[in-house]
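Table S2 (continued). Query chain:
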Amino acid sequence: QVHLVESGGGLVQAGASLRLSCAASGLMFGSYSMGWFRLAPGKERECVAAITSNGGATWYADSVKGRFIISRDNAKNTVTLQITTLEPDDTAVYYCAAAEKYTYNPNKYDYWGQGTQVTVST
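Corresponding output:
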């Protein structure tokens, strides 16, 4: 079966940096676009970043633009979210997901990881 496993979350202070990683297995990784989503209490699931299957194009939510960078290494079947200057509003569970087509619509994603918690304190 398909597995997406996130890692790298934690409890950090505002202004800190984190590098979230997602390891994929059970699918042809290089054929899928990938996305990072976050879910905060009381909020809708939000796509924060997406990347095409070959890494040629990326998309970012306005709320994270300039602070988050999505990248992928198809040889290692991994997708990474590099986060700088974390803010308390970034506190959420972060999920990676795989889609057949490049999109920021969560309804179009086929596979999801279990999530990793990011908590940003003041």
